[in-house]
Amino acid sequence: MKLQQLRYFVAVYEMGSITAGAERANATQSGISMQIKDLEERLGGPLFERNAGGVIATTLGRRFYDHATAILRRVTEAEQDIKSLAGEVTGELRIGLMPTFTRSILPPALIRFSEQYPLVKTRVIEAYSAQLTREVIEGELDFAIVPSEAHRQGEMTRNQFMASDQEFLVSAAGQPFTHMQAVDLSELEPLKLVLPGPENARRAKIDAYLKTHNIKVEAIMELDAMLGTLELVAHSEWKTILPGILCKADESGLARQINPLNGAPLKVDYMMIEPNDSCLSPGASLFSEMLKQELESQIHWHNLD
């Protein structure tokens, strides 16, 4: 059994088709099909059921996936361990972060990391959780930080809890209620809310909160642009709901007013996800730890715990 066969199998398993798996693995469809067939003969049974939409793993395939990813992860761990003997941290990082983090914890963490590890080339991708999760699964990112609600792929990635945050109502400055004072949304006039689209991991939780607490909503505008949302809210009667970590920049209340939600809080948990079949490089581990430290240092600025 060859490592390349395991990589091909994992690619097909995670992508759900021979075609997509071949594209991800930079291989031909016929080549991958042949390697999968060889594995099936070696293991004594089919790993996938073929259908018009792609492939679905059999019980044997699901069981073998756990072994294959564990083997590939151990191989990368061995490679990283040997490379670390050289002493200096080098290489290239590909990190995925949501706009929530690029506005808050990224700048100080990136400055500190670049000063301590100047030989590491760092590339940060900003996107929403659905895209980041997909790119982690496809091996395009070393890791990403997303809300826990985004982690629907379950076994497709490994995850680590990072922190828990609270959501705030964000409005233009000068509201009739006091900046940083808790408000009951059900007692306000019908809200005109700017919210992310349905693919955003936080949206379903916000919708459920509005419904559960009988909050009156006059209109909803869907806008998947964080900076655009902040500017729109600052210059109009529209309001939005955003995580506390993102609201820290408006602590003064000069441009935007922020208010914690009275009663049952609306929370968002963050987790780091990484590919199932590999381990973090020394540089990625160090950078993820710096991001976590920065997150922990900033997330309780509002002192609502």
Describe the protein:
The chain has 3 domains: 3-83, Orthogonal Bundle (Arc Repressor Mutant, subunit A), CATH 1.10.10.10; 87-163 and 269-298, Periplasmic binding protein-like II (D-Maltodextrin-Binding Protein, domain 2, 3-Layer(aba) Sandwich), CATH 3.40.190; 166-268, 3-Layer(aba) Sandwich (D-Maltodextrin-Binding Protein, domain 2). It has 11 helices and 11 strands. The mean pLDDT is 89. It starts with a helix and ends in a 7-residue tail after the last helix. The radius of gyration is 23 Å and the shape is globular. Strands 3, 4, 5, 6, 7, 8, 9, 10 and 11 form a 9-stranded mixed beta sheet that branches. With 305 residues, it is of the alpha/beta class. Helix 1 packs across helix 2, helix 1 (3-15) crosses helix 4 (59-84) and helix 2 (18-25) crosses helix 3. It has helices spanning 3-15, 18-25, 29-43, 59-84, 99-102, 106-116, 129-137, 203-212, 226-234, 244-247, 282-298, and strands spanning 48-51, 54-57, 91-97, 120-126, 143-147, 157-172, 191-195, 217-222, 239-243, 256-260, 267-275.
Distance between the termini: 53 Å
Number of helices: 11
The dominant shape is: globular
**Which CATH class of the largest domain applies here?**
Alpha Beta
Number of domains: 3
Helix percent reads 40-55%
Radius of gyration: 23 Å
Please, what is the CATH homologous superfamily of the largest domain?
Periplasmic binding protein-like II
Structural class of the secondary structure composition?
alpha/beta
**H/E element sequence:** HHHEEHEHHEHEEEHEHEHEEH
Low-confidence stretches: none
Would you identify the CATH architecture of the largest domain?
A: 3-Layer(aba) Sandwich
Strands, total number: 11
**CATH fold call of the largest domain:** D-Maltodextrin-Binding Protein, domain 2
Q: Summarize the biggest pleated sheet.
A: 9 strands, mixed
Write down the overall mean pLDDT: 89
Content of β-strand: 15-25%
